[in-house]
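Project outcomes to date are best conveyed with an example. Our students and postdoctoral researchers have been running inverse folding experiments weekly, and each run begins with a structure described purely in tokens. The record below, which covers 413 residues, was selected by the lab manager from last quarter's runs and is presented without edits.
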């Protein structure tokens, strides 16, 4: 093949993306509670070993692009849009009103706000550091974000305590640090009740997001389960206002089955917000777009969520790869992520109504013939011996649904 001239490359990418087919219209995409983070679209490709590969972009452009794609909601960290020095000052109010008009113009709503408590040097020892002055600053930041959330019309606030931990042992007393962390959340909930009351709005749903490691080596609340324990520890003044924002990859990173982690959150009534992405077990936070690594697992996750009528946001918290250009971020990365999600969602519906799966599951629940003596292990095992093969058949059927074989897709011999 001949080299592709620079001025023909975008057109080539767009033509091949169209040729892939399978894309949904912006109106269809808007029917799903999909949320697009400011930081995901604005990610420039930088990391410890990586210089940026994309140039900065404003929130106006991000909101406009989300609106065009059909991502109906937007979310942001306080400092994604307001410089640290401008927080709580005039600059903040100006930016809030600019954001409001961008959202209105593009038919996008703000779903969630989150406080950056990990990037700035002031959080080097975490937002729950020993010094009361640092903790006071952190509390103020959380309360300020709650206020921003109400002004922007958000319903959720997310907390990612990525610096709540340590790299060297013995420097931090865990119980003390966790108490201090709870004080920050308590301040945010109190501020929320007050602001919501004044503005005649419901209070926000405060959602904690776990990640097992990175940036700290050891994290004090490393998993969603640890957070469930924290929420019911008695340290929170308003545990009913605090739930979870699990991230698919963050659970996978520590070796969990994300679907099982989600199930535990569902049982506690705390699955309120969900960061959707993909990646690998026991690796760092690669934040790959949904469905590109574990599509079968993702199908199963969505079956669980659909069957439990989860109706919270699906937040596209991933990082478009460094190899994707700015044009590619909005012409390929976001639309294809959204379309894979919707496809998997629809497939989850097919799983739920598939007659083979239904019969297999019903048969397993019916069990084998009743054995007279309930202490007869051998007899009970024999009564179910053939039936239990259905477990593997179910897995095979899910694979068929994933690749479309149930609709007659054939790989001919
Ligand atoms: C940070 C983290 C994400 C969280 C963000 C919420 S911060 O980008 O890696 O997983 O969702 O604060
Ligand atoms: Mn996340
Ligand atoms: Mn992540």
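After processing, the design step wrote out the following sequence:
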């Amino acid at each position: 093949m001949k080299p592709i001239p620079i001025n023909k490359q975008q057109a080539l990418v767009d033509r091949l993306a169209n040729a892939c087919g399978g894309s949904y219209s912006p109106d269809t995409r808007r029917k799903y509670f999909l949320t697009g983070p400011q930081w995901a679209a604005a990610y420039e490709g930088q990391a410890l070993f990586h210089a940026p590969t994309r140039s900065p972009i404003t929130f106006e452009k991000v909101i406009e692009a989300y609106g065009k794609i059909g991502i109906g909601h937007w979310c942001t960290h306080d400092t994604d849009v307001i410089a640290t020095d401008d927080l709580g000052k005039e600059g903040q109010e100006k930016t809030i009103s600019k954001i409001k008009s961008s959202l209105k113009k593009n038919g996008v709503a703000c779903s969630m706000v989150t406080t950056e408590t990990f990037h700035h040097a002031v959080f080097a020892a975490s937002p729950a550091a020993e010094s009361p002055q640092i903790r006071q600053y952190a509390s103020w930041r959380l309360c300020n974000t709650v206020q921003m959330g109400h002004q922007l019309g958000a319903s959720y606030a997310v907390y990612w305590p990525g610096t709540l931990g340590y790299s060297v042992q013995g420097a931090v007393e865990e119980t003390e640090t966790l108490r201090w962390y709870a004080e920050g959340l308590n301040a945010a909930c109190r501020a929320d009740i007050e602001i919501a009351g004044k503005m005649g709005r419901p209070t926000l749903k405060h959602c904690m997001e776990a990640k097992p490691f990175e940036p700290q080596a050891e994290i004090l609340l490393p998993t969603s389960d640890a957070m469930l324990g924290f929420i019911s520890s008695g340290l929170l003044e308003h545990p009913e206002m605090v739930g979870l924002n699990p991230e698919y990859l963050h659970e996978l990173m520590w070796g969990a089955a994300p679907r099982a982690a989600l199930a535990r959150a569902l049982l506690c009534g705390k699955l309120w917000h969900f960061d959707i992405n993909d990646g690998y077990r026991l690796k760092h936070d690669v934040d790959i777009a949904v469905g590109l690594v574990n599509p079968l697992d993702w199908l199963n996750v969505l079956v669980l969520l659909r069957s439990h009528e989860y109706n919270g946001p699906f937040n596209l918290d991933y990082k478009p790869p460094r190899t994707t250009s700015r044009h590619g971020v909005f012409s390929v990365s976001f639309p294809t992520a959204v379309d894979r999600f919707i496809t998997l969602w629809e497939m989850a519906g097919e799983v739920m109504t598939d007659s083979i799966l239904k019969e297999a599951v019903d048969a397993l629940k019916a069990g084998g013939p009743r054995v007279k003596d309930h202490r007869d292990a051998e007899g009970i095992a024999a009564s179910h011996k053939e039936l239990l093969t259905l477990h593997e058949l179910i897995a095979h059927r899910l694979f068929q649904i994933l690749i479309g074989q149930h609709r007659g897709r054939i790989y001919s011999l």
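The mean pLDDT is 98. The domain at 26-328 is CATH 3.20.20.150 (TIM Barrel). The training component of this project remains on track.
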